[in-house]
Amino acid sequence: MPPADPFQGNRPLDQSQLEAFAKQVLSSLDPNSQSPSLLDLDAVTDWLFSEVMYKGDFSQETAIDFLRETGVSSSEIIDVCIPEAARRAGQMWVDDEASFATVTFASSRLYALCKALSDNWDMRPRRTGQPTILVAIAPGEQHMIGSVVMTSQLRRLGCSVQLIAGAKQKEVVSCIRRGRFDAALISCAGTQALDNAVRLITRIRSEINRPPRLVIGGAIEKQVKLTSAGTGADITTSNFEVALAGLANAKDRAGPLAAQ
Fold first, then answer.
1. How far is CA 141 from CA 134, 145, 195, in A?
2. Which residues make Cβ contacts (< 8 Å) with residue 18, sequence separation at least 6?
3. What's the whole-model pTM score?
């Protein structure tokens, strides 16, 4: 069963409830340290998991306001709390403790929160020298939270990143033509999505003379041993530092960065 809602299921949250939970989280701080990293992320994750699994109305705006009241940074929520809440939801479905519909709703709420908490990215001239990246979620893939988390992490490193999900092959090819990307990271979690990802890579190579570095990875690596020969990708990895090694200043050009 999901952990008890700190506010006993009351909706919507009011200011006193926000303050109550913020105090609960802050009480877990080391009294000798003021570092936000010492906040009890488990407590925040517990609340987030309970909130997205709640079958009633869900307010994204209220949830974001609440999370900000805890003092936990957006990066910690994206990197730690949201993935863990998603993992717990999936495990409840595996353990037959939650319906597929409930877990699907929870995942969509977490995905939306992750997108909303990610930094906005505007079109602007390249100044950081970091690569321009396309993160493409393989056609037919339903597990998208990991890709949004990775997109946020790459942006915090100074990369320009465009995230594209649910697009057809021709739309991805057109996006690559327009974006002048240094690399395209294709994410997939299941075998059906892997087949689609391989077909996408084949099409990219057949229609673009000098494609960006093509990388494939994701949760699929836990099920299948990926190889460049078998997928057509330049690199097979879920480690974006490996995927992007040597790409800084790969294309010495001025011009607009890719935008979300």
1. 16, 11, 11
2. 65, 66, 69
3. 0.69
The model's pLDDT over 36-70, given as tens digits with 9 standing for 90+, comes to 444 578 888 999 999 998 878 888 888 888 888 88
Q: Is there a contact between 70 and 21 (Cβ–Cβ < 8 Å)?
A: yes
State the residue for tokens 């009294």: 31
CA of residue 101 relative to chain centroid, distance = 21
Q: What is the pLDDT of residues 17-32, one digit of tens each?
A: 444 444 444 444 344 4
Distance in angstroms (rounded) separating the CA atoms of residues 54 and 182:
41
Residue with the two structure tokens 């080391």: 30
How many residues comprise the chain?
260
Helical spans, DSSP H, in 12-81: 15-26, 41-53, 60-69, 74-76
Amino acid symbol at 225: K
Other C-beta atoms within 10 Å of 89: how many? 24
Is the link from the previous residue into 3 a cis peptide, with omega within 30 of 0? Answer: no
